[in-house]
């Protein structure tokens, strides 16, 4: 029997899509929903189906998360926002400046070298970076403490008054090059003839920057801000290795708070699932914002895609 | 006067670039220097000084006795298999999404896109429970399946985008008129044309897999199946008791990705920029 065209088309489509779809549904989509459901129960490990002790407890875990006395949720959320802040006010402007210097050929030699070196931390495992900077600036036997003691011999091994500061510094160190690369890739798409014409008309560097480069880069700056938020939510390895959320949970972020609730000490799966559900909700809001921003810039004929 | 300003500003530009480069590179250089110290040397000496004598035995100990040869092998194993499978599956799905017209594509494609922004934490507990009950805890397969799944969203996005805009419909139509089925068209025309985007996907998913930590930490026990980041993760919180060995393990962990970066830095920067902005 001959296959009709339509059946052949359907079969081929299924054959091409199904392998990816099955793996993705099983590992990502289904567990995401599953985790939301579990957050409404008291499931805390062991058998899931046919376990008589599992009850639906509604929003109990959420209420606990928002009201418990250590206020870990708010500390973690605040730290996530601090990371967004260091990206938006640190990495993005610095990355932009570095990209601008490289792209406008304000220096003649070694551009490839500088670019490669500043981007380098991005490819190194955050776990390795975390352990390295723990040894460099956190640990009592660190380089930082040796230098600090040189200037002030009486300095105590007390935990810093601002424990997020070293973490934010390392995040700045890791990702400035990343934003530089993104900006650079898009600046290279600006027609050099336009820049040339502006210079011939006597526009100086600040004017070129303000009237040509910045307007052309608006949509990239928005993209980078969104990347900063999603990157902040994904931050885990670095802090896990560098401070493990300490001292006293002061450097936790939501992902670490969730992990520690589930996999360290006495497990509290309902709380962990509640935290991860909140993270999913933030991600979904982010997706909506991304789509809205994309539409906005498409309509205004934003530069690049 | 104008020349002086120009000259001065060029010097400032160089100073900025040199400053950032030194700040970026110094911690890594510092690490390599410390890796040649004995524990005694590090503890008693200045952290700014060079080793009193360059001690290389730690490299031998870390590589052979602390199982870093196994971790290295495992890292290579997971990364290569994940990259190959992700590239193939993403090309297949990307072709179907971009060129075979079905209404359901919109839904399925959207489903994958959502995965780009989701955080791994939101699947951790169910995935752990599932892998455990499937008997895949502490097996290579139990690591590879999640790795492949997590690589897919970005890969499928890039691939679909590339095929939609980069592979002309006429080419596919011509092959179809010649009697080639969808699958044959894919193998003989689409897949070869997708090599540029496949390289980008391979690089992004290689770096992601090579550096992955949290799943590895949760889904394996003991040293046998662990990768480099999971091994290094054990030093977190409280440092290992031997600083010399700690720094040597970190150096050994960085060297492979450093070599990879030196060889492919052009493709890596291009791929990362493409992946990040499109995502």
| CATH fold-level topology of the largest domain in chain B | MetI-like fold
Q: Which fold name fills CATH's third level, the topology of chain A?
A: MetI-like fold
- Mean pLDDT value of chain A: 85
- Total number of distinct structural domains of chain B: 2
What CATH architecture of chain A would you give? Orthogonal Bundle
CATH class of chain A reads Mainly Alpha
Order of helices and strands of chain B: HHHHHHHHHHHHH
Largest interface: A-B, 104 and 97 residues
Based on the structure given, which CATH architecture of the largest domain in chain B is correct? Orthogonal Bundle
Low-confidence stretches of chain A: 301-305
* Envelope shape of chain B: globular
Biggest sheet character of chain A: none
Largest sheet of chain B: none
Distance between the termini of chain B: 48 Å
Mean pLDDT across the residues of chain B is 89
Q: Classify the helix fraction of chain B into a percent range.
A: over 70%
Look at the helices and sheets of chain B and give the structural class: mainly alpha
Strand residue percentage of chain B? under 5%
Q: How far do the termini of chain A sit from each other? A: 47 Å
Describe the structure.
The complex is a heterodimer of chains A (305) and B (279). By secondary structure, chain A is mainly α. Chain A has twelve helices and no strands. Chain A has a single domain, classed as MetI-like (MetI-like fold). Chain B is mainly alpha-helical and 279 residues long. Chain B contains 13 helices and no strands. Chain B has helices spanning 2-34, 39-44, 57-65, 68-99, 105-117, 124-133, 140-166, 169-177, 182-193, 195-211, 214-219, 228-233, 243-278. Chains A and B meet through helix 1, helix 3, helix 4, helix 5 and helix 6 of A and helix 1, helix 4, helix 5, helix 6 and helix 7 of B.
